[in-house]
Amino acid sequence: MLYLVCTPIGNLQDVTLRALEVLKSVSLILAEDTRHSAILCAQYGITAPMASYQKFNEKSKCNEIAERLRAGEDIALITDAGTPCISDPGGVLVQRLIDEGLPYTLVGSACAFVSAAVLSGFSLGALAFGGFLPEKNAAREKHLAQFASFGGCLTFYVSPHAWERDLACFAAAFGGRRAVLVREISKKFEECVRFRLGETPDFTQKGEYVLVIEGQAPENKRNALSVREHVQSYLDEGVPKKEAVKRTAADRGVAKSDIYRQTVDM
């Protein structure tokens, strides 16, 4: 398991008991600045080995970390202060773990929408919080319209009894964007249900949830081309076929297999 551990933003006594327990039990602590984090570790008798993990090496470190997790190690990631992935390293690694199906969780956050945003794995360069949707139809539409031009990640609180109604509203407002429904944050049955708006995800309708909606990608002119023309545009730039298919799938938000089937003879 990879533990994304929140650390105090000021007073060292603001750290949580679970955060301390995790940091004392893992085999490795990845720290943004090991010298800075050594102060926290010394304060609480944490002796786990530390390694540097910051924006300049986060991509190159992913292979090693993934291998160690697959081998059964528990690893913690901390930043100088605050929550990993929120304007701090961590997002690249989380996305890698999602792609490979490796487990991770967040420890120490006291804010549900921030925790859910981190767990979603979406890019968090900009983040907005929309709370619960209003009860009346006109008020819901007006509320969601405020976020129509916002390009960053969106977060909303959702109650199970209003889920089907709200889902239709989100799809109408934001199209088929990728979304994650996060439940039981920090508990035994923590879960991230991934789907696209407009679909009906299968989830346990009990308790309350945070819906995280991926930020709107900048307009890609290649998407106006046919699939074959889209792939060919990358081939014309000297990109290998396999990579051209991968990039086209990412641009269009579809599976690579879908693109491959339509371009297998190219």
Structural key phrases:
10 strands, alpha/beta, 266 residues, 10 helices, single chain, 5-stranded parallel sheet, globular, 5-stranded mixed sheet
Describe the protein in words:
The protein has 266 residues and is an alpha/beta fold. Helix content is 38%, strand content 17%. It is built from ten helices and ten strands. Strands 3-2-4-1-5 form a five-stranded parallel beta sheet, with helices on both faces. A five-stranded mixed beta sheet has the order 6-7-10-8-9, with helices on one face. The chain starts with a strand and ends with a helix. The mean pLDDT is 92.
Strand order of the largest sheet: 3-2-4-1-5
Structural class: alpha/beta
Give the topology string: H per helix, E per strand.
EHEHEHEHEHEHEHEEEHHH
Oligomer: single chain
From the spread of the alpha carbons, the general shape counts as globular
How many β-strand stretches?
10
Radius of gyration: 21 Å
* End-to-end Cα distance: 41 Å
Work out the strand percent.
Answer: 15-25%
Helix content, binned percent: 25-40%
In the predicted model, the low-confidence regions spanning at least 5 consecutive residues are none
What's the tally of helices? 10
Compute the average pLDDT.
92
Largest sheet geometry: 5 strands, parallel
